[in-house]
Amino acid sequence: MIYKGNIIKMRVENDSTVIYYLPVGEKEILMNDILEKRILIKYLGKINCIKCGRETKTSFAQGYCYPCFISAPETEECVIRPELCRAHEGIARDMEFAKGHCLISHIVYIAVSSDIKVGVTRQTQIPVRWIDQGASHAIKLARTPNRYLAGIIEVSLKKVLQDKTNWRHMLTGRIIETFNLIKEKEIAKSSLTGDLRKYFDEDNEIFSFNYPVKQYPEKVKSINLDKSPEFAGELSGIKGQYLIFKDGNVINIRKYGGYLIRIEV
Fold first, then answer.
1. Burial class (CB in 10 A: 0-12, 13-18, 19+), 154
2. What is the pLDDT of residue 165?
3. CB 225 within 8 A of CB 257
4. How far apart are CA 210 and CA 173, in angstroms?
5. What is the dihedral of CA 243, 15, 151, 257, to 10 degrees?
6. Whole-Å CA distances, 8 to 23, 199, 240
7. pLDDT given at position 231
8. Which residues of the chain are modeled with pLDDT < 70?
9. What angle do CA 204, 82, 6 make, to 5 degrees?
10. What is the pLDDT of residue 229?
11. SS (H, E, C) 123-185
12. Tell me, what's the pLDDT at 164?
């Protein structure tokens, strides 16, 4: 089977095992069905902005042309650093967009991907955000009415929790072996001061995720389509937004949003 088209990040469905769909042009590939099969991926030398569709020589922020990168609400600074959000003050690149993305309920969470980390996401992005990060477990820590407050809480917790994922450890199946998310949540709560504590979420439900990985490699090597536009290998797993191959090669699909790709299965 041959697929050709611009790709975007994989769509996910949470089930007993996470289900992945890779959009390629107007079609989707059910990636779970091609595990343990040899696939060929070829970058055809063309990138189209995932926002406006125009052709661009360079992709910014995982799929945008430069004009969209500096003007689109999807690439505003608070996407990466929520504590910089100013939508609650009436300031945003697009206030209508902000009403549906910044001025809504946000969750501060603790997750286990490689180690224990703190993060922020919109309530509507649960559990997709956790799956995209390759988290094995997650728990809600706080619930806020907007993105700014969630960002302030996240910043205040960075002194007791890290906010980065070691993607190499995550893709080799190496995660912290002993953890107690409820205990970590209580430690984090004690670090909240003043008015921030009132946003603490008492819900202690622990979310767990099982990824379609047949075999984790001992070491991983990231595929760079800009330098090596064609490669083939046996797909041994999918985790986060990464495809994992039996030989240890991995590719971050989200990084190549808008790339024109040919896939043979």
1. buried
2. 85
3. no
4. 12
5. 30
6. 6, 34, 14
7. 95
8. none
9. 100
10. 97
11. HHHCCHHHHHCCCCEEEEEEEECCHHHHHHHHHHHCCCCECCCCHHHHHCCCCCCCCCHHHHH
12. 84
Amino acid 114: pLDDT: 84
What's the pTM?
A: 0.94
Give the pLDDT score at 160: 87
Residue 34 has a pLDDT of: 97
Task: List Cα–Cα distances, 227 to 48, 222, 235, in angstroms.
Answer: 18, 11, 21
Backbone angles phi, psi at 73, to 5 degrees: -65, -25
Assigned token pair, 185: 């949540």
Nearest to 186 by CA among 239, 110, 123, 245: 110
